[in-house]
Amino acid sequence: DSLLQETMNILRRVLVSPSLTTSTRFTSTSTTTTTTTSDGQLKPKTAILMLNMGGPRNSEEVEGFLTNLFADRDIIRLPVQNKLGPWIAKRRTPSIIEKYNEIGGGSPIYDWTSKQGAMMCKRLDELCPESAPHKAYVGFRYAKPLAEEALEQLEADGVEHVVAFSQYPQYSCTTTGSSMNQIYRYYQQNYPLKTPGPRGPDGVSWSVIDRWPTHPLLIKTFAQNIMKELETFPEHVRSKVVLLFSAHSVPQYVMNRGDPYPAEVGATVQLVMQELGWCNPYRLVWQSKVGPLPWLEPGTENTIKALVKKGQKNLMLIPIAFVNDHIETLHELDIEYAQDIGKEVGAERIGRCAAPNCDPTFIECLADIVSTHLKTGETVKPQMLMTCPMCTEQTCKNAKMWWAKATGYLEAQQKKAKATSS
């Protein structure tokens, strides 16, 4: 108990001292050994674990996806969740299958993430030869391939370093936080005596990229796509088109804990508008609410109805928190809002800004984020290791402590604390 208390005290001190950092740099050697995997591919040295919620690739995967989603207490809390969650998932499966059938039969998020990862790693091999070869591993929270499968694969490949790279630009405990907890639980359940990192038996080092809401190339990608979509509107209404930055909503009780998500989404929106020269009126709105509890507002659907009623009949939807197309863009934004609601309320036109997907500027964004991370030797930002001010979840606290150990951050700060006191 005293050792745990001492560890927690050290972590608290370093969390309020952002200037304290630790580096884990890759170094080149004069001799190199090239090895290959069983399928003849170059053995990866650095794994980029791309974390996202995922989506079912076909109708057979829908119920499993929904079951995993409604079992996750990081995003939604239900009474007797282990019974009610599967019941809700089964009941909603037929209607969700219908929606996926309307966009081609399944979610394209795996295909987009795989392509983004491959293109990013090709660029990383050029930018960071000292940590090459790089290989992307897709690790989803609710759909195949689950993060657990990706972890098994990268361990089998014998990588030397793993970068846990969140594909949510803005951090929330319900998204990135849930994926980080998923990795923590994987090791706790399967290797309870093994913590990856400096003291791990395998010699594999870990680091984390948990958020990137203000990266200049992310901002540039959205700004360019908005301008392209604006050009499709008639010139006489172009400057009057209301830009609706639509992000996935989250329950209000999560915000009451002190979750940083709305502030980080707002930061992205402000920088995009600055890049655009504040050319159009705009608002930040929230989509995809589930259940009767209060979530972030105003909702995207109600905002569309209210604006059109006031005479603002030309709108553009911008998926500001999504980096690739999936059901929330292809069905919710394109069909439910732009088509169905637009027709219902008499909008002249509701356009939709393209998601980043494999836009060259966005691929360069991903590569720049990771290459900078690797070259500076960053392990994990203190911000990720801090729990929300009003959080009372022991699992969250335990997971953040585990990450402080796994990345080597805590050990480095302990060494600095000893050096300072001696």
Brief overview, please?
With 422 residues, the protein is of the alpha/beta class. The strands form 2 sheets. A 4-stranded parallel β-sheet has the order 2-1-3-4, sandwiched between helices.
What does this structure look like?
This protein is an alpha/beta fold. Helix content is 48%, strand content 11%. The protein is built from 15 helices and 8 strands. It has a 4-stranded parallel beta sheet, sandwiched between helices. Helix 11 links the parallel strand 7 and strand 8. Helix 1 packs across helix 15, helix 7 packs across helix 9 and helix 10 runs parallel beside helix 11. The longest helix has 22 residues. The radius of gyration is 22 Å and the shape is globular. The N terminus is likely disordered.
Which descriptors apply to this entry?
4-stranded parallel β-sheet, 422 residues, alpha/beta, globular, disordered N terminus, 15 helices, single chain, 8 strands, 48% helix
Q: Helicity, in percent? A: 40-55%
Q: Total number of helical segments?
A: 15
**Secondary-structure-derived class:** alpha/beta
Q: What separation lies between the terminal Cα atoms?
A: 24 Å
Indicate the overall shape.
globular
Global mean pLDDT: 91
| Major sheet strand order | 2-1-3-4
* Rounded radius of gyration (Å): 22 Å
- Report the β-strand fraction as a percent range: 5-15%
Work out the number of β strands: 8
The arrangement of helices and strands along the chain is HEHHHEHEHEHEHHEHEHEHHHH
Largest sheet: 4 strands, parallel
Poorly predicted spans: 1-34
